[in-house]
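User: Hey, quick favor. My workstation is busy. Could you predict this chain's structure for me?
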Amino acid sequence: MATLREIEPFAIGFNEADISNVQPEYERNYRIACGFKLLVETKPLTIRPQDWFVGPGCGYPDLGIYYSRAAGMFYPPDVMERQIAAHPELTDELKALYDEFEMYRTHRFTGGFYTVKKARLREAKCFWGEGGGHANPDYEMLLRLGTNGIREKIKKFRAIHTDRPSFYDTQEIALSCIEILAKRYHQLAVDMLATANEEDAKCLRRIIAALENVPYNRPRDFYEACQFYWLAYSMIDNDSPGLWEYVMDPYYLPHDKEDRYECLRKIWQLFYRVRAWNLCLGRTDEFGNCHYSELTLDTLRVAREFKYNTPNITMRFNKNTPDDVWRAAAETLATGIGMPAMYNDDCVCPALEALGIPASDAHLYCMNGCNQIDIFGKSHMGLEDGEFCVSKALEFTLYNGVETWFNQELGLLTGDQTKFASFNEFKEAFYKQCRYLIDLVVETSNMCQEVFAKESPNPWHTNLIQGCLEKGLDYKNRGPIYGHGQILTEGLTDAVDSLIAIKHFVYDEKKYTMAQLVAALKANFEGYDDLYRDFSGYHKFGNDIDDVDNLYGEVSDYLYAYALTKSTWRGGKFGLGCSTFQRSANYGYHLGALPNGKKFGFNPDRTPADTNLSESIGPVPGCDTHGPTATLNSVLHCNQYLATSGNVMQLKFIKNQFATDAGMDAFVALARTYFLRGGQTLQINVVSQEEMIDAMDHPEKHQDLIVRVGGFSAYFVRLEKGLQENIIRRTQQGL
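Assistant: No problem, here it is.
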């Protein structure tokens, strides 16, 4: 018969922690570390010799109460129900345990920051502001120092901060967790060796030998580096691998060429199994020197070989990136996996330096989730601290604060829209509504940041993020060197296309009055055929047309600059960016009709209608008709040096574009030129339009079809219908 301790070791460890001598301000940290310790001491472990490397695999899915690196303490109700069904004799004890842990559930606190009005705004997809965030632990430091070296670091700063012994006791416990796991895996491998076949025995002996050195000391070769890395990466919860070559290059030794490549293949399969987040390839330093290696090219080769949708590969470029690296990236994109996402160091690094980050650290940036920017091993920059919908700000302006989903006054009272005497007056009211939504994000996010610091500390990350041990502060409690934040946008170009049509037809030509436009929008354009034809057919962003492109630049620069005036609770500045993840269709669903011709996202019975919405800083899907060069010329009207979060720019190409050397060369020339002119990112789909359409009708035939969504790649048939339609409507380009 199972015991409660066997079913919920983390919760038991959390509860049973002896806190009699723990300083009150560190009680939660200490309890969490003790929960981790009991978990790694008691949960059953397995070894699959064919995997080569051992580790828990990023989580314990059978746990009903656990700690998430992003959300803190929480529990999924469906797991509790399964536990009770599997162990009816423990029903009362399990229910009592869940009732007790309700007081520790982090989102129990963060949800309280939403007033009735804020909750309505969030439900209507106007804004949100409670993201917990991914992290980029300093695996380079961990592998170089080993746990012995990290323990010396704890000892050093314990002697400096003598007023917080409980903090450093917590860090010792957290550090011991990986050593406990290593010892248990070592013993399990020894036990399995006695009955293993010859092939498995060879793998087991290698595991045994590696775990006698790591995680305590620096790895001696690439195999041990991968074993150490995987054990640390998968110990608690999967996150972003970060700067891959920066960590692993010192161990990628030339005399082990065949073996190191096989190690790379094995760990790549493990990354895929747990859906690893962002793995960053290549970088440049503050002097413009490029850092690419054989590991860079071999990693791209492995990605081409397996054609997985994860890990989410980002690759960094600058003006000095060699031709063979560009070519390897293009060949990988040609497989259709939507990776690597491309980032321009010559744009990103100056943006980070403008925040006050020294150039040497700015050039250590990587992605901490889909495409948000972090400083590797030195920051907690939020991943997604919040988001707002620019097109909702336009709705508020058109209806004097009334929002269409609930038909309630949820925005600001900026005045009767029919009384604005000029477009500048209308635009200022629009900016006021945008500021209102940004301020809501900032206010809510900062309250949540403080709660995360108190209620969901992360002792494991605290050991591996520089600044934390040095200050004696947790990773979420202002410990990291950098604590900037990131706010995302939705529906930017939909709003701009609408604004330029309003300017032209209402204020410049005076062909229609504002009252007529508002009436048409409320009617979903029914009975307003001429007005609909004019507004929906007017200049669209993404076609190298000056009036709309210039307005796009003005609006985007204004919003990005305004966000930078706001401070985070963590001790940095908020930056703006665009990474819509997979939310664009849902945001479009919650929007009413817009002056750019978009009709209601929902019918009266709340079923989806027109959910199309811009999913990046680029054009509304399907509205760019003049080719990729014109599209990128338009996008460059935005000052992307203001974007300190990932600023996704999507392009979709026909497969034939990458089928020849000339086609790939043309793409590389386009991408290089865009980056030289100040573009920050490119994310590329190479896919067949016909295949996607067929996949909607016959998903069973296209299980392996991968598309780039908005910061990550996904299997097309697993996406919701609205998002599938959004991707299909993106213009398919060729050069």
